[in-house]
Every structure is written in C-alpha cells, then in structure tokens.
Amino acid sequence: MRKQLTILALLAAASLPAKDIFVNTPRTTLLLKAEDNKPLHISYYGDKVTDAEEVYRAFSLWQEAYPAFGLGNDFIPALSVRHADGNMSTELVYQSDKETKEANATVYTITMKDKAYDFYVDMCYRAYDNCDVIEAWSVIRNGEKKPVTLLKYASAYLPVRQGDVWVSHEHGNWGAEAYITEEPLKPGIFEMHDLTGNKNSYENRPNMMLSLDGKPQENSGRTIGAVLCWSGNFRFTVDTQDKKTHHLVAGIDDANSQYSLAKGETFTTPALALAYSDEGKGGVSRSYHRWARLNNMVHNGNALRKTLLNSWEGVYLNVTEEGMVKMMDGVKQVGGELFVMDDGWFGDKYKRSIDNCALGDWVVDKEKLPHGIEGLLAEAKKLGIKFGIWLEPEMSNTKSELFEKHPDWVIKAPKRDLKCGRGGTQVVLDLGNPKVQDFVFSIVDDMMTKYPEIDYIKWDANMNISNHGSQYLTANNQSHLYIEYHRGFEKVLQRIRAKYPDLTIQDCASGGGRVNWGTLPYFDEFWTSDNTDALQRVYMQWGTSYFFPAIAMASHISNAPNHQTARTVPLKYRTDVAMSGRLGMEIQPKVLSDEDKEQCRKAIADYKRIRPIVQFGNLYRLQSPYEKKGVASLMYVTDMKDK
Ligand code: GLA
C-alpha cells in the first residue's frame, strides 16, 4: 500500500495538470493549453472569455500552437529544421511558461523543447492592455553540439475554424499600391509573398484580414487581422487541407533563406500582430491604428504632423537655390509649415542632375546651391518655416565616388555582372556589413551634426535587392543575406532614433514600397504612392487605411493635369483627398493662380483645425469607393466621441 502511494505521488509530481493560459487584451482572448511534455495547443481566439471549460464545451480549435515538420502534421508547418545529426523531424513539447509585465502589455513566454534534442522554441505572445492587438513570435534556440539549419521559421501559426471564411488583402505595383482584393478561402492553398528583398509592400503586402462570417463587411462580422512586422521577404500561407480548419502560417519567406543556427545561437522571428474584432474590418483597422499610435510609432504617434511642400513634382532634379527659395516662399504663403528639398541637390565629381549618378556622395552640389544647406536653412528661418531634405542612404550608383572607393560594399553575387536599377547604375549597399551600417548611420548623423535645424528627412529606397550575393558574408552563409540586411537596417535605424528621437523621418521606397510595420516603428510616416492622382489615391489610401493610421499616411495636393495619369480633377477634390491623411503639397506653387492659392490656403487652414481629429482620431470608413457608387466617405472621431 505504501509503495503504491509513493508511485502515485511521483506520478502527480511528474505530470502537472493541464494549464490554461489566457492571453487577454481588453476585449479579446487567445486561449492556450499547456501540459507537461505535451505539445502546446491553441484552443480559441476571439471575443474575451473567462471560462476555459465553456470554450471546450462549445467549441475548440485544438491545434498545436507552433506546428513543426516531421511527426504527424500534414499541413504547411510553422517550423522545419535539419538537426545537427541530419534528423529532419522536430517534436516540441511544453516545458515552462512565464509572464512579464511591460508598461502597456503582458508578454507570455512559453518554452518548448524538442523531446529528443537540445533544441528549444519559446512561443511569445505580447497582449496589450490599451488596444486589442496580440503580437506573436517565436524564439528558436540551438543547444545541440553543431549548427542546426532552419528551413522554415514562421513567426506564428493560427488555426481558423472553417465556414464561410473570406480573405481581404492588398496588392499593386509602382503607382498603384494597396488595391484591395477579397475572396473566399477554398480548399487548397492561399498564399501571398514578397521576394523583392527590401521593398515588401508594393505588390503583396505583409498583412491580411480574415472575415469569419462570409463576405467581408465594414462594420459587422467576426474578423481577424494579421500583420507581419518585418521589412523583408515574407510569406503568408493559409493551408486548407482538411474539412475543419484553415491553417494560417506567416513569417519571413524561407525561399533562398535557409539559416544556419550556430550552437548556442538564438533566432528571434519578427512579430505577427493579430487583431480580432466583431465589428468587421473597421473594428480591426481601428485596433491596428490604436496599437500603432499608442505603442508602435515614434513619439507614440501623439505629436501633430506639419503640413509641408515637397519639391519633387515641382522641379524634379532641377534643384536651384533660387527655385528652392521661391518654393519655400510659396508654401509659406498658403500657410504650410515645412519645406522639403527632394532629390537633385547633391554630388561633386558626379552631379545629380540625372538619376544615374551620385547616390552615396552626400555633399552639396555647390553649382546648384552656392550658399549650401546653410543658405536654405537661413531662408527657411526668415520665413518662419521648417526645412527638410531627401536622402537615399542605403543606395549607391556605379557612377559615384562612393562606388569607386568601396565597390565591395554593394550587394553583388560572385562571378556575376551587377544587375543595376534606376538609371541603369543604381545598386544596393550591403547592410549586413557593419562598415556599411556605420556609413549609412553617418549619412544622417553628419547631416544632423552639421545642420541641427533640419526638421525632417525623407528616407528613400528605390531599388530592390536584385543581386543575390553578399561580398561580406561567407560562402556558406550566403542564404543569410536577406536576414542580415534587415538586421543591419534595424540596427542603423535604432542608432538614429537613439540619437535623434525628435527628427521627423518619412519612409519612402519609390512611393509605397515600404509600408510595413517592420520599418514604420522607426519612422513617423510613409509616402503612400508616387501616384498623386487624387482619384486613384482614393482607392490606394482606402486600402492603406486597413492597417495604417491617417497620421502616418503622406497625402499631397498635386498638379492638374496630374503628372502620372494626365487626369485633371478639380482642386477642391484634390485638397479633400489630401486632407484625409497627413496633408501636404507636391506642386510648384508658382503655377497656381491667385484663386487656387486662396483655395489651398483655405484647405490648409481647415486642415489645421481638424488635424487633431484626423491624426489622432478613430477612423470609420463610411462609403467604400470599391462599391462604385461614385462616392467615397470617411469619418474621423475623437476618442471621447465628442468631435
Ligand atoms: C522616388 C520617390 C519620389 C522622389 C524620387 C526622387 O521615386 O518615391 O517621391 O523622391 O524618388 O528621385
């Protein structure tokens, strides 16, 4: 009898009862079930619940929280690795969990271990208490004696119960970003990915919504959003194999990106930010906007953004001192607060008068600007406006002093001729190389040290990673290129933000090529599209607003006829469309008639009056342009719902 009791006691100690982990935001719950030596399970994601038993009685998703390849899972896995001894299978079981409190969130970390190998995965969930967003990511640790190869390493997995589930996503290209497509999920695979390397939001975008109650509705229906916080290649897969569950797996695209994880090394995947609402797409958007403004943007998104004039469509590369001063005067006259000098101001040996040279040579072209940036800053000060400048720090041209000095700093495959971008000469610097990181940091640092009055930088990036090869990485680690590029990029941005927290920086990549939540936490706003045609902007801004708040969306009044589409739309229409984001101008003020100037002045004055509501408020999309009723309508409402 005594012996029997001892055995029972031992059993009880060895196997803890199953534990429910409630990952809660104010109105939502992600419910996990953890049990010693068993896989971690996701059992529910939706409206807030408090009673796990009720969930199990009514409904349970019951899927492994981070499904790995090789033992039983027959859909696309979240994780697939080759262990040091060649074993391709992984079996993760729960070991422990902890909760860490942060200022506005709680992070739940659940540690899993492979049953047979010294190989660990922490599944992490950050649940905010000021918005209904949960960030999910994995931390993969190799305790084996030799490197383990990561073949697939998604950020997270989410099961969704089948029914009439639809997916909404955006796609496009240069000048036509963020057009929305909505379609029902069918048996087979729904997939979205990006392979540009560094401009991941032109074509497919790293975000989607799933509407669980049929055709997506703006104000009703259970809806899940998923946003990958990563600026590089990504892949979203919804695998519909069986008749019960849609399996969503999202993360860095594994294509050509196998990662050799050294003994003792840890790999942290980027967060997949999930949002759930029963108020349709609008509810999910408002959660993301709130998450962005309160937790995820520089200045916490609570500093009003200035109205500005950007010089690009006014003069293109034909920058002159006289021209810049006149434009500054023009924006001042209509009540603008900032002037931004775009491309065309730099170059010494090679002058940036055409777009095939000088990127990397960030010195003032003294012929164009005899009094330098100092001269322009002095003029801006006289007028009482702020001054900003365009840079393209990650890039060079083969026709530049930088390239002549450091040909080894560019991304290039061995034994291959360079594939060049814009102007037939543009190349991308290898941000995986710490020397390049220092150089890129120094571009901004030197500029701000010399001219601390600069208020705004437009950070552009006009070329994809089109040469797969790093002159810095070893031959064995060439498949780390995409990862190391973005790690390097982030390190540079962190250094810049640590030193210049108050500088406003616009994220631009030939328009909206980098509208993603991997990059944006370091920036204040993005350039929505190089297409400034107000009619097309209605659609693009509509799509962009699914995941990004108005405060971050640069939206400019431009010329008529429009430079991209040759369409003429009335100035009132152009100003109204521009007022629905961060209002600016992309026009040569001297072409405006007195009447037009007066209209712009009035629009800017009106915008300043409503700016706090547009920039900090909650967005309600009232009438979709996609319904082709000849009208689109948006409403912005304060948190207090009093304006
Ligand atoms: C990109 C940007 C434009 C402009 C040009 C300058 O295309 O998207 O706004 O800055 O570069 O070359």
Task: Describe the protein in words.
With 643 residues, the protein is an alpha+beta fold. It is built from 12 helices and 33 strands. The strands form 7 sheets. Strands 6, 7, 8, 9, 12, 13, 15, 16, 20 and 21 form a 10-stranded antiparallel beta sheet that branches. Strands 22-23-24-27-28-29-30-31 form an 8-stranded parallel barrel, surrounded by 5 helices. α5 (321-333) packs parallel to α6, α10 runs parallel beside α11 and α11 (571-578) packs parallel to α12. It is globular, with a radius of gyration of 26 Å. It binds alpha-D-galactopyranose. Alpha-D-galactopyranose is lined by residues 312, 342-343, 390, 460, 462, 508, 510-511, 527, 530.
Question: Given the helix and strand composition, which structural class is it?
Answer: alpha+beta
Number of helices: 12
Mean pLDDT: 96
Spell out which ligands are present.
alpha-D-galactopyranose
Count of extended strands: 33
- Percent of residues in helices comes to 10-25%
As a percent range, the share of strand residues is 25-35%
Rounded to the nearest angstrom, the radius of gyration is 26 Å
* End-to-end C-alpha gap: 75 Å
Overall shape? globular
Q: How many strands, which pairing sense, and closed or not: the largest β-sheet?
A: 10 strands, antiparallel
